[in-house]
């Protein structure tokens, strides 16, 4: 339909409440909310900024270097057992990467994400 921005935007919490899903929500509602928030962050330019800040935080805390070393170790281990495939390496590295992000980096990222969402919402109410 295209319509006005006001027709496609709205308070994320209002959207959840209008679905009648309460605090937990259904998977469908969560998917809709995720897409809405993602689109708002993209449109506002916050997504790129958050991504760059997260990448820099991971470099600054040494996570990236540690992950590189982990990859080298996995490759050495798998090379000797002929189990080295891109799929196996990727799967193992992703699990390790996700588990090894420092809690402080996660907390900082989520604080900035929440701030960006709130900024988008307050900007919408001024339209």
From TrEMBL:
Keywords: Activator, Chromatin regulator, mRNA transport, Nucleus, Protein transport, Transcription, Transcription regulation, Translocation, Transport. Gene3D superfamilies: 1.10.246.140. It is found in: Nucleus, Nucleoplasm. The keyword Transcription applies. One of its GO terms (biological process) is mRNA export from nucleus. It holds the Pfam family EnY2. GO terms for molecular function: transcription coactivator activity. The keyword Protein transport applies. Residues 1-27 are annotated as: Disordered. It comes from the Eukaryota. InterPro entries: TF_ENY2, TF_EnY2_sf. One of its GO terms (cellular component) is nucleoplasm. Involved in mRNA export coupled transcription activation by association with both the TREX-2 and the SAGA complexes. The transcription regulatory histone acetylation (HAT) complex SAGA is a multiprotein complex that activates transcription by remodeling chromatin and mediating histone acetylation and deubiquitination. Within the SAGA complex, participates to a subcomplex that specifically deubiquitinates histones. The SAGA complex is recruited to specific gene promoters by activators, where it is required for transcription. PANTHER family: ENHANCER OF YELLOW 2 TRANSCRIPTION FACTOR. Component of the nuclear pore complex (NPC)-associated TREX-2 complex (transcription and export complex 2). Component of the SAGA transcription coactivator-HAT complex. Within the SAGA complex, participates to a subcomplex of SAGA called the DUB module (deubiquitination module). Belongs to the ENY2 family. This is Transcription and mRNA export factor ENY2.
